[in-house]
Design brief:
two-stranded antiparallel ribbon; alpha+beta; 3 helices; Rossmann fold; 4 strands; globular
């Protein structure tokens, strides 16, 4: 996960698509990733994240929730 994130950041993207970016990371590593995403977003980078973690979803300024493939919120 961390290598994939680092590789994406090398090109200084304006958009990051992240599918379970903290999956298989220790809690402390996951927090570092989410804090990094928050800082990048404050600098103008759009982050689109797919997550099962409500804690990670709380970092977002806009949240969409799917249930059984349907948009519910």
């Amino acid at each position: 996960q961390l290598v994939g994130i680092a590789r994406a950041l090398v090109i200084e993207p304006r958009l990051i698509l992240a599918d379970e970016p903290t999956g298989n990371l220790h809690t402390s590593q996951g927090k570092v990733v989410m804090d990094l995403f928050k800082r990048l977003n404050q600098e103008g980078v759009t982050i689109v994240q797919v997550t099962h973690s409500e804690a990670n979803a709380a970092y977002g300024s806009r949240t969409l929730q799917l249930l059984d493939g349907c948009l519910v919120a």
